[in-house]
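Notebook B, p. 112. Complex prediction, attempt 2.
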Amino acid sequence: MAQHKVNYTQNGGLPIALTSVDKIVNWGRSNSLWALTYGLACCGIEMMASGASRYDFDRFGTIFRASPRQADVMIVAGTLTKKHAEFIKRLYDQMTEPRWVISMGSCANTGGMFNTYATVQGVDRIIPVDLYLPGCAPRPETLQYGVMLLQKKIRANHASKAQKAKRLM
Amino acid sequence: MRAYTPKDNVQAKPYYTDRFYKSPQVAKFAPQSDEVFNADLEAIKAKFDVLDAFIQVEQLVVYINAKDNYGVLELLKDELEYTQLSEMSAIDWLADRGGFEVFYQMLSMNKRKRIRIKLFIEDGQAVNSVEKLFRSADWSEREMFDMFGIEANGHPFMKRILMPYDWQGNPLLKTYPLQGDEFAALYEVDKIYGKEAREEIGPEIRDTARVDRYDSDRFSRLGHEVPKGTEITGNEPANEQSYQEDGGVFLIKKFDKESSVIIDDPQR
């Protein structure tokens, strides 16, 4: 038998830890939130800075993935134009469930200063959004705080229950 | 938000005009005042009709007939050393004169001079493509088609360049509303969810400064947060938001707002 360092005075002398399914699943989900690289505009620069060594998203288990099929959270970082709207929907549909969306910055939240014919006035017209981050652009600290809030939101949900798929309509 | 006023004939009817106001014009000089420009203009005049020509801001402006544009640009490129087409587009004069002014901005690196060739076309009229002469005209003519609806005859790929292919309307026309017409406002909804989703998703909220503290779907009052969708009646009790669960995390001390001290004495 392998040499386990087991404290035989705890847990009835067994090398086990007891927890609930909710907690262990949510622990896994919330601590490895793989984000889709989705920098649409200048907010993307702040998102990249969050991922780089100075702010280091890896501490939270957040690693940027280049494929929606490997991603759990979509960080919509920047202005969404009407021409691009169908593609954000397609990428969102390609992500596996459970999936979350962070709308980063004024443009993604409401269209921001682009009050024009060519800009989608908020990504929540296209996909359901979990978290809105204010700012133009939000600093990396804001995005980190946002991810921590999302982790908290994930941990507050029941994992064992089949999650109802989020639909805009 | 500022009320929307229809801008169908903004050119014909300015917002405000002083009776005695005379809009300043940049001074125009005769082409004869510059040797190089004069020689260039004579070379153009020898082969094509020139409607008007003058020097403005050290650049020669030449008005020609719409059908001559390829020939004039070919002459400028091959014989007069204007080897670059630095910019081209159109100007909307529909309300004033019922058409567009198309301009070609030419640059000669050898002569260190710039010439602007201008021509007037009626609404719906097409121009000849100069894409065979200047590769830069490829995208510029597509943009002109996209923004004004002016087609360039002989262009290899006459499609929209900035707006989606299935877009309706030409956004740089003066009559086009900045915030889009009905087609533009519901474009993404129609395309992704279909026309029947219009009512459910609703109109665009164009006032980005709008805050409604009784709307818990879209807003949350700082320090008084309630779950999404809760009906807010009056003053919700203050609630301390913290991003950590009770009990905290290993090695990380939980920031407790209540036990923190606010220092308001700057001379402390």
